[in-house]
Amino acid sequence: MNFNPESVIGIPHIYDVYRKGNVALINALGNGIADDKGIYYFVPKMIQYYLGEDGV
């Protein structure tokens, strides 16, 4: 298993099936990083770095 085996959330072995190409994940692993409130401060800097645009 890829996650904490004691956890009651998620689907056991879903990532194994995903890697084999048998399912598609809409909300894939790591997808929520940009939605974390702690990241908001860095968004303008990320826009500048990745897009070369003013993020303000």
Assembly type: single chain
SS-based structural class? mainly alpha
Share of helix, binned: 25-40%
- Amino-to-carboxy terminus distance: 42 Å
Number of helices: 2
- Beta content comes to under 5%
Uncertain stretches: none
Structural Rg: 16 Å
The total count of strands amounts to: 0
Largest sheet: none
**Average pLDDT value?**
79
Give the H and E element order.
HH
Tell me the overall shape: elongated
Could you outline the blueprint of secondary structure elements for this entry?
Blueprint: H1 14-19, H2 43-51
How would you describe the overall organization of this protein?
- The protein is an all-alpha fold and 56 residues long.
- 27% of the residues lie in helices and 0% in strands.
- The protein contains two helices and no strands.
- The chain has helices spanning 14-19, 43-51.
- It starts with 13 loop residues before the first helix and ends in a 5-residue tail after the last helix.
Entry keywords:
56 residues; mainly alpha; elongated
Q: Summarize this, please?
A:
This protein has 56 residues and is an all-alpha fold. 27% of the residues lie in helices and 0% in strands. The protein contains two helices and no strands.
